[in-house]
Specification:
By secondary structure, the protein is an alpha/beta fold. Helices cover 17% and strands 17% of the residues. The strands form 2 sheets. It has a 9-stranded mixed sheet with strand order 1-11-9-5-6-7-8-4-10, covered by helices on one side. Strands 2-3 form a two-stranded antiparallel ribbon.
């Protein structure tokens, strides 16, 4: 039978048993699925996954006993869960292959910004979008019982993306960082700002304040994360490594978090 995406939906399991996959450090998968028709910002290429060859087509073409099924992937560098390189928003910035991987992994905290809601319908001006107040950041940190350390990665849980993905609202509207909020994090030494939304900027902020703070401070951002609600008020190890794309403006990633002890507990490092 020809292998298709439908018939290939079975769960992979080792012949010698699932025990071979046990004793792994638990992780939280922060990555949204990639598929044709996935929500995309209007400025980026839509995703396509056409079949390159089926098992039968391969065998017929090359005269082999076994065939190899493969699809092609037409995708934006900013599709789904992805990391940016500064060249995306800074003409003088670095490409993804010239950006140290240290930007994309390391110690991270997740702030609870679920009380910050999308505001509309009037267009927002520079510095007036969503997470607009340093007090909001400080309150979130106090609730987490944590402080931001130089070199940290900070992920913001607006409790928005998981509620609306993949509906049109997810891509058209979202809360985000203002200049003041993003710069507060940048001045603390944060190197990567992430969010569970389509973008780190409020969708009504056409000054793209969050990205412009990243430009000013030479830091990066990560968008379209999921499951951040599982990490709120915790410190964890984050990995969201980009592909080695020569000249890349960004890259889809497989983002994961390795939880540590709950903040405020005696075991917390």
């Amino acid at each position: 039978m020809t292998t298709t995406p439908d018939t290939a939906a079975r769960q992979q399991s080792p012949l010698l048993g699932d025990r071979l996959l046990e004793n792994r450090q638990p992780i939280v998968d922060l990555t949204r699925p990639v598929y044709e028709g996935m929500p995309m910002w209007f400025g980026h290429q839509r995703t396509f996954t056409p079949v390159n060859q089926t098992h039968e087509q391969f065998k017929a073409m090359y005269g082999t006993k076994d065939g190899f099924y493969a699809r092609n992937l037409v995708i934006s560098e900013h599709a789904g869960t992805h990391a940016d390189a500064t060249i995306e928003y800074d003409p003088d910035g670095a490409t993804i292959d010239n950006t140290p991987l240290a930007y994309y992994y390391g110690s991270a905290v997740c702030l609870d910004l679920s009380h910050v809601k999308f505001e509309g319908p009037e267009p927002m001006t520079h510095g007036s979008a969503g997470f607009e107040d340093v007090e909001i950041a400080e309150r979130a940190l106090a609730e987490a019982g944590e402080e931001i350390r130089p070199g940290d990665i900070v992920l913001a849980w607006f409790d928005y993306g998981d509620r609306w993905f993949p509906e049109r609202k997810y891509i058209d509207e979202n809360p985000g960082f203002s200049w003041e909020g993003a710069e507060y994090l940048a001045k603390k030494g944060v190197v990567n700002i992430g969010t569970d939304c389509n973008a780190i900027d409020n969708s009504l902020d056409n000054s793209f304040a969050g990205h412009m703070v990243c430009k000013k401070y030479g830091i990066v951002n990560t968008e379209h994360l999921q499951n951040l609600g599982q990490l709120v008020n915790t410190r964890f190890d984050y990995f969201g490594l980009p592909l080695h794309l020569v000249g890349g403006t960004g890259s889809p990633i497989r983002a994961v978090a390795i939880p540590r002890a709950r903040l405020g507990s005696p075991e917390t490092p």
